[in-house]
Amino acid sequence: VSGTAEIFGTELPPEGWLTIPPRSKIAIFTWHGATVELDGVSESEYTSDETPMVIYVNTHAILDARRARARAAQGGDLEASQGPRVIVVGPTDSGKSTLCKMLLSWAAKLGWKPTYVDLDIGQGSITIPGCISATPIEKPIDIVDGIPLEMPLAYFYGHPNPR
């Protein structure tokens, strides 16, 4: 990588190679321009000047300001403060999980420790489909391994569809 780029809110390492598992769907984004070398086979590659990233980072900035306000209201105590609660909704395959990964990674990069609650029983971002689950996010989400699974709380709903 020459310059800075990120995948789902997690910055790409400036040196060395990153092995992306086969059939992974990723989007590499750069705010200021970057050169990224890809080696291997991909189903599709493209560049776009139109992305929702400005909206996403503005949402992150608003959430960060609300977290800071919640911390200040608790006398600066990070453990006692409870920042905003956010629910991301939308149709199937509209980017809900992608947005969540970015917001979580950006928050963790700034030192916050949000809890990710996955209510999408059809996809299962934290565990398998058919479960509702939650896990603390203490660092930006790993590009290859995804959401950390050290301490998830999971309940089996029993069906991959809420109907």
Short key terms for the protein model shown above:
about 20% helix, about 160 residues, Rossmann fold, about 15% strand, single chain, 2 helices
How many E-type strands? 8
Distance between the termini: 45 Å
The stretches of 5 or more residues where confidence is low (pLDDT under 50) are none
What Rg, in angstroms, do the CA atoms define? Answer: 17 Å
Give the SSE order as H and E letters: EEEEEHHEEE
Number of helices: 2
- The CATH architecture classification of the domain at 53-156 is 3-Layer(aba) Sandwich
Average of the residue pLDDT scores: 89
Q: What is the CATH domain class of the domain at 53-156? A: Alpha Beta
Strand ordering within the main sheet? 3-2-4
- What is the structural class? alpha+beta
Stated plainly, the CATH topology of the domain at 53-156 is called Rossmann fold
Domain Clp1 P-loop: 90-162
GO molecular function: ATP binding; polynucleotide 5'-hydroxyl-kinase activity
Keywords: ATP-binding, Nucleotide-binding
Domain Clp1 N-terminal: 1-70
